[in-house]
Amino acid sequence: MNEADEPHYSLGAVVRLTGLSAHTLRAWERRYEAVKPARTAGGTRRYSAADVARLRLLRDAVEAGHRISELAPHDDDALVRLLGEGEREPSRPTPFVEQVCAAVDRLDPNEAERLLALQLSALGPVTFAREVASPVLREIGDRWASGRSSVASEHLLSSLTRNVLGIALRGHQPAASAPRVLFTTPSGERHELGTLIAAVAAVGAGANVTYLGPDLPAAEAAAAAASLGAAAIALGVVTLEPAAARRYLAELAERLPPGTEIWTGGPSPEPLAEGVPSLDLDELVCRIDGLQRARA
Question: Which fold has domain 180-295?
Answer without folding.
Answer: Rossmann fold (3.40.50)
